[in-house]
Design brief:
The complex is a heterodimer of chains A (295) and B (423). With 295 residues, chain A is mainly alpha-helical. Chain A has a single domain (6-282), classed as Orthogonal Bundle (ABC transporter involved in vitamin B12 uptake, BtuC), CATH 1.10.3470. In chain A, 72% of the residues lie in helices and 3% in strands. In chain A, strand 1 (134-137) and strand 2 form a beta hairpin. Chain A is globular and about 60 Å long. The mean pLDDT of chain A is 87. Chain B starts with a helix and ends in a 12-residue tail after the last helix. Chain B contains 15 helices and 15 strands. Residues 1-7 and 19-32 of chain B have low confidence and may be disordered. In chain B, the strands form three sheets. Chain B has a seven-stranded mixed β-sheet with strand order 7-6-8-9-10-14-15, with helices on both faces. A five-stranded parallel β-sheet of chain B has the order 2-1-3-4-5, sandwiched between helices. In chain B, strands 11-12-13 form a three-stranded antiparallel β-sheet, with no helix packed on it. Chain B is globular, with a radius of gyration of 22 Å. Classes of the chains: A mainly alpha (295), B alpha/beta (423). The A-B interface holds A 4-5, 8-9, 11-12, 15-16, 18-19, 120-127, 134, 141-142, 144, 146-147, 215-218, 220, 222-223, 226-227, 257-258, 261-262, 265-266, 268-270 and B 54-55, 186, 212-215, 217-220, 222-227, 229-230, 243, 246-247, 250-251, 254-256, 271, 274-280.
Chain lengths: 295, 423
Amino acid sequence: MLGIPFNILVFQVFTGLVLGTIFILLAIGLSLIFGLLTVVNFAHGAFYMWGAYAALLCIGCFGNFWIGLIVVPVALGIAGMVVEYALIRRVYGLNPDYPLLLTFGLSLIMIELVRMLFGTTGYPFNVPALLKGSINFFNLFSFPAYRIFVIAVTAAVIASLWLFLEKSNIGLIIRGGTRDSEMVKALGIDISRIWLLVFGIGTGLAGLAGILAAPMRGVYPEMGIAMLVECFVVTVVGGMGSLKGAVVSGLLLGQVVSLSCLFAPAMSNIVIFIAMAFVLLVRPSGLFGVSGLLE
Amino acid sequence: MEDDRKRTRRDFLKSIGALGGAAAFGGILTRKSFADEKAPIKIGFIVPLTGPYGTEARDQEAGATLAVEEFNTKGGVLGRRIELFVRDDKLNPAESARRAQELLEKEKVHMIAGSIGAHTQLAMNEQCKRAKTIFMSTSASNEITMAKDVSPYTFSEATNLYIITQAVGEWAFKNLGKKWFILAADYGFGWQTTEGFRAIGKKMGYVEAGLINHPTGTTDYTAYFPKIIAAQPEVLLLCNFGKDQLNSVKQVHEFGLKKKMKVVCPLLVITARHEAGDEPFEDIHGGATFYWEMADTIPTAKAFVNGYRKRWGRPPTDMAGYGYSGVKGLLSAVQRAGDVDTKKVILKLEGHTYDHYKGKQWMRAWDHRSMQDIVVLGSKTAKERTGEWDVFKVVEVQKANDKQERSPDVLGLKEGVPLSRML
């Protein structure tokens, strides 16, 4: 293909896959929260950054990455629930601008807090010893073991989330709430507890993305800002509120970015916006979106 | 907030004066207490204290403050106390211009020094040119000494990216290999270092295996790696800085590219090295204008490092050196001129040879650029390190020479014609 060796192309597809997985973990959270709460969570990138800093603390306390992998998402999930309970709950039902402004302001505060507590320069974060080195694929190319691990963790998370949403009773309520929360309320279900849970799952996933990304991209206060923009694009392309959409569009855009790096490197930052424009022209509510959610 | 800063600085300087009086240093200091009737000499110092270069700006401020304190404890300059007016331009050129205006018109400073950033420095330079006041730039920039922007009032204590890449490129060609791949950030820093590396590469007879321009702020570089690996270069030049350098160096390490090729950065700084940790920077080389271990061989560096450590509790960085030497250069020129008159000071700055903190430097009369030694650094491994600040080793020093800089034709200036002739 265009004179590029086969192994290079496969290598390129793999790098795109990892890019996609981090997109997916953030986009799922954004999409779930939007789907059920119709809140565009501008603080999502800040939760991702907090996840990385929480991982840093965890390693400082326990000296172990693996404990962090459990503790960090839980801690960030709880932090998200506190935020939902104390702040976001108060602006439901108001003009959509209110939660938007609230979460945007919250993200500024969260970033500034980290700058105050940890300083403006970042911290080193090494790949856990067990996953150092790389795996050779049929002598075609070798790929870092840690990145393979990231792909595996993401796949496991997507699978369990799918099972949870499709097969459990709470999942049924969440899906019902996404379609028509008034109806769910009318059936006698306390939907506010579901909102709390979903916001927590979303921020917990952001925290997980933070700890997974830290060894690859470093830990610094502004790390979530650019990520948030890219993940909004993923969410919009996939369709706001759609889990399937977030997964498919995360994988797709990961490949788009990766392949554009091979053919037109200078374009790699804007190519996802071009892709978004194209998708929205053809399907205004995204690949798997339900129309009318934003109205 | 700025008023607070100023007040504390003044208070501080007063207390330094008082301390000078109280110190049992023998007769000199006690006799030379400041005569109150003499007005102070005012130096403006504008750096981006808030924003991405905040850490570097603090280092520059610390260096400049040290220079001022050294003069003040010796009785000031011409018997006049020195006051430093530090301002924050937030890395925004419009803010730089406003701060410069404020310093020139309200505080009536005698000269201005500082800046980190190509555009902020040009904005300050414009204001100083208009006010016919000396501006001493402390930011590495190719433009500031070119015909379009330079003036009799414009000086650059900092070197530039072109000169640094000549030194680093020559060393890399001789020691690492001649087939180069360039991965460069798609803005001023990336373009200028690419241009510099290509110039020295051509001179030495290099082979360019490829060039990729990546957008600034890219967080994942791995998608560029297949192309780089396929090109099989001997040397990979990472022409980026700050977070871009941090992320690309981390991922280059993660993907094992260092086993296939040597990696070189135009600039290595302690802050990024700390942020990435030991392993990612292992076996990576790059340029710098100062490293505190130069104190082992150079007497002025020893005095500077000791003084700075004593005052601030950490060793000085390249940026601290620029701040220190820039302000010291201005003040010693005033001393030699015996006056703060701008024209007299300019004549004393032009063509002056000095050794403030890292060996011989000279301020060329015809382009107002300070020529200076450039060092090539290697990174120490975790085992080699002895402490927090012990992160690099000096692998080569390229002595200051006029040939490092672009030709007078490129700069648009006439060699040997002092800029002060334009006055």
